[in-house]
C-alpha cells in the first residue's frame, strides 16, 4: 500500500542520522508537506471570508430568520478565521509512519483507527523482519483536511494522534518511526526521529526509512529556558499522555516529583478536554496556580495550543472577585489563617460585626448605597479575563510583598495602635439614640401621629430572634426589618383598636408604609443591621479584644494577637493590602454574609457583539475591548466551573480548599501535586479539607515517575534533602545527565551577597537562558540589590516564589536559612534545589556550617 503523505524521492540505506545530506533531504520533504498545508489553509481562509461576506448580505434582508441564519454563519466563519489566522509557531510538529492496521476502518479524521498492526504487516525472512509503511500522519495544533477530506494534519488531541504520544519501543503498536518537526512560521528548521521498531527493516514507497537525530525529547530538554513555559505538545511522553487523555469523569489525581511535567500535563489536559467536549466545558475551566509568578510563567501555554477563551488561570490569591493578594503572611500567621479552625471564628465574626459601632466595621453598606458598592471597579476586576496576565493590583512582576516577620513591615502599615474602629465616630445616618460605641439602642418613629419606641432590650430580643437560623447575615436584613415593624405595630397599640381583621390588615399596611418610608427608620436600619462587607468584617477582626471574643476556645491568645496584628494592615476602612491567606477568609465571609443585591447588568446594545465571528470585522482595539467586556461578564456570572484544575495542590490550606471547592461544586476535577514539595505545615488537616472539597466523587490516580527538568547530578543532590524532609519517599528518575555536578561556594564570612552575585555572573556565562537566585523570604529585597545591573536573564526569588518555576541555572543561597524559615522549610528547600535544568550552585551562609569546600552540613 502506498504511503499517503510522503513525498517520493530516492532514499539511501536505512541509517540513524545519515549526516547532513539525509537530514537536509528529510527537511525538504517536510517543507513540501508544510507548503501543501499552507496552500490548503489559504483556500480555507478564502472560503471563510466568502462566508462572512455572504452573511453580511443576508443581514440586509432583515427578516428574523435571515438574521438568525446570518448570526450563526458569521459565528462559524469567524471562529474558523480566527483559528486559521493565528500565527502558530511550529504549527505542524509531528509525524508518524505506520504499519497497515488490522482492519481497514477509518475514523472521522480520515485516519485508520486500528491500533494494532495487521497480522501480515511484518514479513519474516532470512535477513530479519521487513515491512512497508502503509500510512503517514502529520500531527499539528489543529486538524486540516485536503479538498478530498483526506487528513493533511491531524489535531494533536484527536484519537488518531494518540499513537504519536503513546507508542514506545516496548509497545509500538503500528508506529515504526515517530518524527518531531521543528518549524518557525512557514519554514521547517529541523527534524528529530525516534525509531520504535529498531529491529525492523522498514521501507516507505520502496525506499529504506531514514532516521534523523537523537530523538525529540532530548532535543527539547536541552533547550535554553526563557521566562515563560513552552508547550510540550511535540514530545508528550506515554505516562503523561495517559493523564492528559484520561476521561474527565469525577476526580483525576496526579502525583509526581519535581520536574515530572505535572504543570505541563495539567495545561495540556485543559486543551484536550475542550477539544473533546467543547459544549460541556463552555462552562469554563479554572486552573488554580499557587503564585502570580507561576500564572505569568504558564499562561502562554494554552494560547500556543490554540485554546484561550474558556480557561481561566488564577493565582490562589486572586480567586475572589475584586480582591487581590499583594502580601504574604509570616508562616506563623499563615498557619492560623489557613487552618479550618478559622471557619468557627469567621462565623462568630460575621454575626458579631452587627454589634460593632458604626464605622468600626469599615465601609458597611447602607441600603441605598448597596447597589453601587456591590459592583467592583473595573480596575479591581482586572484579572477577570480568563487566562489573562497578572492582575494589575499585583506588582508587574507578579511578586507579593512580605509581612512583618519575613521582613520590614510595609510602609504605613498600622500596628496595634492603628486598629480599625479606634476613635471612629458614629457613621452617617446613625440614630442619635445610638449607645456609646455600639449599635443604636433605641428606635423611635412617629406613626398615626404618635411616637412609638423600641428600647434596647426589645431590640436585642429581635436581633437574637433573627440570628437564630444559619442564613447569611446580609440576607436576614429583610427579616429583621419585618420583625421591627411587627414590634412597632404591637407597641403602637393599634392592634387593640381593630377588631375587624380586614380593617386591621389595611391599617397595618398603611402603618408599615408610613414607618418604613420615614428617614429615621431607614437610617436606624442601616445602622442597626448594616449590610456588612467581607472586608469590613475582616478589618473588624484586627481588634485584638474583639477577635479574642470571637475566637474563644478556638485560637490561643498568642494566635489571636498574631492574627489581629496582621489584619491591622487592612486599615480602618478595610481597604488595605490583603495577604494570600486573607483572600480565602474573605471568600468564607462572602458565603457567611451572603452576596448583597447586585445592580442589573446593562443590556447589550447589539447582540452581534457576542459573536466571536464579528471580531474579525473590527479593529484589534475593538476586539480586545470586546473580549475584556465579555470576559468580565462571564467572570461575574461564573461562580461555578465545569472543570477545576488545581496545580501544586499540596500547598493549599484547608481554607483555600474550601474556597476552591465552592467554585467546583458541580465540576469534574484534575488535581496535581507533590506532597514532598508542600509548604503547608499540617498536611493531614489539608488532606481532610481536600476530601471535603472533592466530596465522595470517585477518584482515578496517576503517578508520574520521570524527572524531565533536572539532570541526574542535580536530582541526586536534591534527593538528599528529600530523604530528610520525607524519609522513604521515592525520587523521580532523572532522564538525562549533563556530567556537571553542582558547585558549592562558601559565602559564610559576611559576603553572602558578593558571592551570590559572583556565582550568578558565572552561570550567566555558562548558560544561554535564565538564572534564578533563590533566597530565604526575608532576603528577597536584599537579593534584588545583589543582582543590580546583571540584566533580565537573572532574577532573585524568595523560596516560596520559586514554586513551579524553572531556570537554566540556579543559585540557592543558604539552604539552612530556607530550611529554618517554617515548619515545612525542608520541603521548601527541596523545591528550591529542583528548579535548574542545567546547573546548580549552592552558596552557603553561616548557618549552613559548611565544610572547608563550602558544602553545607545538609549534603
Ligand atoms: N514530555 C516532555 N517533553 C519535553 N519537556 C517536558 C516534557 N515533560 C515535561 N517537560 C519539561 O519539564 C519541565 C518540568 O515540567 P513541569 O514544570 O510541568 O513539572 P512539574 O512536575 O510541574 O514540576 P514541579 O513539581 O517542580 O513544579 C518543563 O520545562 C517541561 O516543559
From TrEMBL:
Spell out the Low complexity composition-biased ranges. Answer: 377-393
Keyword match Chaperone = no
Name the PROSITE patterns on file: UVRD_HELICASE_ATP_BIND
Q: Which stretches are tagged as biased composition: Gly residues?
A: 414-426
Enumerate the spans annotated as UvrD-like helicase ATP-binding domain.
235-711
UniProt: ATP binding residues: 256-263
Region annotation Disordered: residue ranges?
1-24, 103-127, 377-442, 674-693
Mind telling me which InterPro entries this protein's record contains?
Answer: DNA_helicase_UvrD/REP, P-loop_NTPase, UvrD-like_ATP-bd, UvrD-like_helicase_C
Listed name of the protein: UvrD-like helicase ATP-binding domain-containing protein
Which species does this protein come from? Streptomyces demainii
Lineage, highest ranks first = Bacteria, Bacillati, Actinomycetota, Actinomycetes, Kitasatosporales
Amino acid at each position: 500500500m502506498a504511503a499517503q503523505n510522503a513525498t517520493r524521492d530516492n532514499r539511501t540505506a536505512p541509517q540513524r542520522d545519515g549526516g547532513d545530506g539525509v537530514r537536509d533531504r528529510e527537511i525538504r520533504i517536510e517543507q513540501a508537506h508544510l507548503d501543501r498545508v499552507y496552500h490548503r489553509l489559504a483556500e480555507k481562509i478564502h472560503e471563510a471570508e466568502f462566508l462572512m461576506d455572504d452573511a453580511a448580505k443576508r443581514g440586509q434582508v432583515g427578516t428574523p430568520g435571515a438574521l438568525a441564519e446570518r448570526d450563526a454563519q458569521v459565528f462559524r466563519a469567524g471562529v474558523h478565521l480566527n483559528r486559521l489566522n493565528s500565527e502558530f509557531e511550529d504549527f505542524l510538529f509531528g509525524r508518524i509512519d505506520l504499519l497497515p492496521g488490522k482492519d481497514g476502518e477509518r475514523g472521522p479524521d480520515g485516519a485508520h483507527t486500528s491500533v494494532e498492526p495487521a497480522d501480515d504487516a511484518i514479513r519474516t525472512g532470512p535477513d530479519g523482519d521487513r515491512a512497508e509503511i502503509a500510512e503517514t500522519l502529520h500531527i499539528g495544533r489543529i486538524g486540516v483536511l485536503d479538498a478530498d477530506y483526506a487528513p493533511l494534519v491531524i489535531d494533536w488531541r484527536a484519537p488518531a494522534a494518540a499513537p504519536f504520544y503513546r507508542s514506545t519501543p516496548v509497545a509500538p503498536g503500528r508506529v515504526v518511526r515517530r518524527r518531531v518537526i521543528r518549524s518557525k512560521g512557514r519554514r521547517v528548521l529541523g527534524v528529530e526521529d525516534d525509531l520504535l521498531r529498531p529491529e525492523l527493516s522498514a521501507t516507505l514507497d520502496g525506499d529504506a526509512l531514514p532516521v534523523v537525530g537523537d530523538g525529540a525529547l532530548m532535543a527539547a530538554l536541552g533547550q535554553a529556558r526563557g521566562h515563560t513555559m513552552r508547550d510540550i505538545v511535540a514530545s508528550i511522553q506515554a505516562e503523561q499522555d495517559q493523564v492528559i487523555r484520561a476521561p474527565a469523569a469525577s476526580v483525576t489525581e496526579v502525583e509526581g516529583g519535581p520536574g515530572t511535567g505535572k504543570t505541563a500535563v495539567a495545561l495540556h489536559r485543559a486543551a484536550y478536554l475542550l477539544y473533546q467536549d467543547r459544549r460541556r466545558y463552555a462552562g469554563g475551566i479554572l486552573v488554580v496556580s499557587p503564585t502570580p509568578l507561576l500564572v505569568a510563567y504558564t499562561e502562554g501555554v494554552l494560547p500556543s495550543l490554540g485554546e484561550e477563551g474558556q480557561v481561566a488561570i488564577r493565582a490562589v490569591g486572586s480567586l475572589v472577585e475584586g480582591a487581590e493578594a499583594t502580601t504574604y503572611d509570616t508562616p506563623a500567621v499563615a498557619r492560623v489563617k489557613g487552618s479550618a479552625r478559622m471557619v468557627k471564628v469567621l462565623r462568630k465574626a460575621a454575626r458579631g460585626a452587627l454589634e460593632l459601632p458604626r464605622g468600626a466595621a469599615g465601609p458597611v453598606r447602607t441600603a441605598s448605597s448597596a447597589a453601587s458598592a456591590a459592583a467592583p471597579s473595573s480596575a479591581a476586576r482586572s484579572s477577570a479575563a480568563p487566562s489573562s496576565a497578572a492582575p494589575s493590583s499585583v506588582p508587574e512582576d507578579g511578586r507579593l510583598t512580605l509581612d512583618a516577620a519575613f521582613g520590614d513591615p510595609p510602609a504605613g502599615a498600622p500596628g496595634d495602635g492603628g486598629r480599625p474602629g479606634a476613635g471612629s465616630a458614629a457613621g452617617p445616618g446613625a440614630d442619635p439614640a445610638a449607645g456609646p460605641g455600639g449599635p443604636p439602642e433605641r428606635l423611635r418613629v412617629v406613626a398615626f401621629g404618635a411616637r412609638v419606641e423600641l428600647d434596647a432590650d426589645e431590640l436585642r430580643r429581635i436581633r437574637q430572634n433573627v440570628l437564630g437560623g444559619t442564613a447569611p447575615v446580609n440576607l436576614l436584613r429583610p427579616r429583621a426589618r419585618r420583625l421591627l415593624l411587627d414590634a412597632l405595630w404591637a407597641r403602637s397599640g393599634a392592634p387593640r383598636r381593630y377588631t375587624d381583621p380586614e380593617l386591621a390588615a389595611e391599617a397595618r399596611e398603611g402603618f408599615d408604609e408610613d414607618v418604613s418610608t420615614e428617614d429615621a427608620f431607614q437610617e436606624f436600619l442601616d445602622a442597626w443591621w448594616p449590610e456588612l462587607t467581607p472586608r469590613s468584617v475582616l478589618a473588624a477582626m484586627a481588634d485584638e479584644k474583639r477577635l479574642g471574643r470571637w475566637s474563644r476556645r478556638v485560637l490561643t491568645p498568642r494566635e489571636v494577637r498574631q492574627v489581629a496584628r496582621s489584619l491591622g494592615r487592612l486599615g480602618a476602612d478595610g481597604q488595605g493590602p490583603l495577604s494570600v491567606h486573607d483572600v480565602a477568609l474573605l471568600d468564607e465571609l462572602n458565603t457567611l454574609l451572603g452576596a448583597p443585591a447586585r445592580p442589573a447588568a446593562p443590556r447589550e446594545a447589539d447582540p452581534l457583539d457576542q459573536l466571536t465571528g464579528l471580531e474579525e470585522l473590527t479593529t484589534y482595539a475593538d476586539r480586545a475591548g470586546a473580549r475584556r467586556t465579555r470576559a468580565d461578564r462571564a467572570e461575574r456570572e461564573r461562580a461555578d466551573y465545569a472543570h477545576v484544575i488545581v496545580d501544586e495542590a499540596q500547598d493549599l490550606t484547608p481554607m483555600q480548599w474550601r474556597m476552591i471547592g465552592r467554585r467546583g461544586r458541580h465540576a469534574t476535577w484534575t488535581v496535581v501535586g507533590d506532597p514532598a514539595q508542600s509548604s503547608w505545615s499540617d498536611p493531614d488537616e489539608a488532606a481532610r479539607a481536600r476530601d471535603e472539597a472533592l466530596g465522595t466523587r470517585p477518584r482515578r490516580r496517576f503517578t508520574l515517575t520521570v524527572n524531565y527538568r533536572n539532570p541526574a547530578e542535580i536530582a541526586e543532590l536534591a534527593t538528599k534533602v528529600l530523604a530528610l524532609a520525607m524519609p522513604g519517599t521515592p525520587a523521580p528518575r532523572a532522564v538525562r545527565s549533563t556530567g556537571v555536578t553542582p558547585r558549592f561556594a562558601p559565602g559564610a564570612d559576611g559576603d553572602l551577597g558578593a558571592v551570590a552575585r559572583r556565582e550568578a555572573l558565572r552561570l550567566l556565562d555558562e548558560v544561554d537562558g535564565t538564572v534564578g537566585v533563590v533566597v530565604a523570604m526575608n532576603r528577597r529585597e536584599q537579593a534584588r540589590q545583589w543582582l543590580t545591573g546583571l540584566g533580565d536573564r537573572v532574577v532573585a526569588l524568595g523560596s516560596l516564589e520559586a514554586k513551579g518555576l524553572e531556570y537554566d541555572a540556579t543559585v540557592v543561597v543558604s539552604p539552612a536559612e530556607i530550611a529554618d524559615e517554617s515548619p515545612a522549610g525542608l520541603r521548601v528547600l527541596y523545591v528550591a534545589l529542583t528548579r535548574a535544568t542545567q546547573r546548580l550552585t549552592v552558596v552557603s551562609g553561616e548557618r549552613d556550617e559548611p565544610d572547608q569546600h563550602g558544602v553545607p552540613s545538609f549534603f
